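Sanity check

After download, print the first record. It should look like this:
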Amino acid sequence: MSTPTTIPTQPTGRPGTPHDLVGIGIGPFNLSLAALAAPLTTLDTAFYEQRPAFHWHPGLLIEGTTLQVPFLADLVTLADPTSDWSFLNYLRGHDRLFPFYFAERFHTDRTEYDAYCRWVSDNLGNLHYGHQIDAVRWDSEHAHFEIDYTRIDPHGEAEALGRTHAKNLALGIGTAPHVPQPLRPLADAPGTLVLHSADYLQHRDRLLAAGHVTVVGSGQSGAEIFLDLLRRRPAGCEQLHWLARTEAFAPMEYSKLGLEHFTPDYTRYFHHLPQAARDDLLPRQWQLHKGIDAETLAAIHDELYRRTLGNTWPDATLTPGVTVRTAGRIGDGRIELHLEHTRQNTRSRHTTDAVVLATGYHERPLDPLLVALEPHLTRDTEGRLAIDEHYRLVLDPALTATGSTIYVQNAERHTHGVGAPDLGLAAWRSATILNTLTGTTPYPLPERTAFTTFGLQQRTPASETTTAQPRRATTPRPATPSSG
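Expected structure tokens:
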């Protein structure tokens, strides 16, 4: 982004009344928080996002792909089924309730989830897009946070500088595509068709025109992209390779009791484990969230089998257990991957014309945003931010004594477990934050959510330690929001 020589500064002067809560980042999780906060009339909130509008993984909205969670895992329903911002109310506002009813679809298309979230975003009044957050500081004199931002115009240019103030923060800056180190130089090189799966749809035509395409990664995105390319390339000329580090193209754990790892009960159990036990457990649970749903695996096999009906095998190779050691370009401009198979203790070279990296996402680091607050932060033995059961950063007592705090969304996998990035826990976490923030229970939450008893020692939910208060006053229920 180019920056003008002089950027107008919005006058700040002496701070006025700070917001009760400022959210930084507007993905599904902070959008959930904004939606559940909207009817709480005595709570002043504002949410800021650098992008010009809401978009949810636009590069992966492949035709026919669905969410891996049921439609009830929308922004609000599992905390407040009567909310105006539920998925069912979205359908009602678009006159689509009966078609959805007869479709009998428990898992919605990703494109529909994206459209639903944009509908919520377009109709909430506490969201501010085109605002890049530059710095966060603690103002000890006024006992609140200062947030500096740059307002971005529709062309991505800096338009003005500004500042707002907040008693509390909610950090929901999300995740960023992860490109493995051996492939970063190629991914950054102009003219080389090496891209992350996050950008798949924008480059699909180029990939279909390429001679040989290699997909790297054994998760759901890798499977969906491999299947999409397979279906769109002619039989006998597929020229596809699918490589993965995992021992198999493994199905995701989707049994009913297995799914109870994504309940608040399990989150509570995990949070109270010792740090060493949590760190040991997390990598072992990869199949809970990094596997492939059984329907996608079946569809891939069906498509491959269909292409054998002419008594020939498709030109498609699927190889798990392989690591990309290094990568580079060779003389004819093609891409060469140096592969290693750990179990066989063998190495080989693989030449291809294009590479799609379905290598997942990593949490965006919070440290650059919180650099001015470092003296107030608490960290574990691995240098990660300490986070309490209510999704609050553990801050020094001098700051928390003022009643201010910082909440995090989808940055707490090391303290809260595999459910941190799961959409099914979004409404619960947002409700927990709002209950804690207000000191009341605008969103009463159940004490038990799983049939499984995790651990021999049962802990009382922290929410039970305070007497339940009446619901905070809310505005009269508005008419159904516009369809947008």
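If your output differs, re-run the checksum step. Summary of this record's structure: The mean pLDDT is 91.
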